[in-house]
Specification:
Shape: globular
CATH superfamily: Flavodoxin domain
Distance between the termini: 19 Å
Bound molecules: flavin mononucleotide
Largest sheet: 5 strands, parallel
CATH topology: Rossmann fold
Length: 202
């Protein structure tokens, strides 16, 4: 298996989503021995904020791209190539202000491309990211999988929608949650890792 790992927390190794992502990755490598893992750190990447020039570059046929437009489409081309080559994508997702980090949103803006990762066909919209599995490692200060804050979660809900739109049919979400709540935070990581191990035991 070719695995693409997206790191998105600015907290590096201390990051909870990174630690949970690592647990997922370890289990994937055990399940599929010989897998190749390619890591992309979206915090260190200088992802261009999606702008008119990028949109124009997407809509321009390759042979008509100016030097400026070629430069503008480069990040998208590289990101899509990495994605297309992968069978499995592991995404670390720290929750910031109820949603995903803006770097991850910027990455999504560059990989969501009509005619490349989705198309408008006779039967409506067709996602072109076929036969891929996505694993989400979501970390949050509060609890969103149940209870009063459930409707405030725009991490899993959003990622399932946009990746589903792009054709990904298998999306698995794991959460380390309540990391800011005394009495819950102490057990949050062991509980999350246990959930990963249970899921891979079958
Ligand atoms: C800028 C910022 C915004 C945050 N917003 C939320 C939030 O809306 N809800 C929440 O439950 N936790 C929030 N948190 C807490 C983080 O989700 C939590 O610390 C999590 O562990 C971050 O992921 P990481 O450890 O992988 O960096 C926020 C943290 C930061 C730094």
């Amino acid at each position: 298996m070719k695995i693409l790992r997206l790191e998105t927390s600015f907290q590096g190794k201390a990051s909870k989503s990174f630690q949970l992502g690592n647990a997922i990755l370890e289990n994937l490598v055990k399940k599929y021995p010989g897998s190749q893992v390619h890591t992309r750190n979206l915090v260190h990447d200088e992802i261009p904020h999606f702008n008119e020039i990028h949109f124009t570059s997407f809509a321009t046929p390759v042979q008509d791209l100016s030097t400026e437009l070629k430069r503008a489409v480069q990040y998208s081309n590289n990101a899509i190539e990495e994605l297309m080559e992968s069978d499995i994508i592991v995404i670390d997702v720290p929750m910031y202000n109820f949603t995903i980090p803006s770097s991850l949103k910027a990455w999504i803006d560059h990989i969501t491309r009509a005619g490349v990762t989705f198309r408008y066909g006779e039967n409506g919209i067709e996602g072109l990211l076929k036969n891929k599995k996505v694993y989400l490692a979501i970390a949050s200060g509060g609890i969103y999988s149940e209870g009063v804050m459930k409707d405030f979660d725009f991490t899993e809900k959003y990622l399932r929608s946009v990746l589903g739109f792009l054709g990904v049919q298998e999306i698995f979400a794991f959460r380390v949650e309540g990391v800011a709540i005394p009495g819950i935070k102490e057990e949050a990581m062991p509980k999350a890792i246990h959930a990963v191990e249970e899921a891979f035991a079958f």
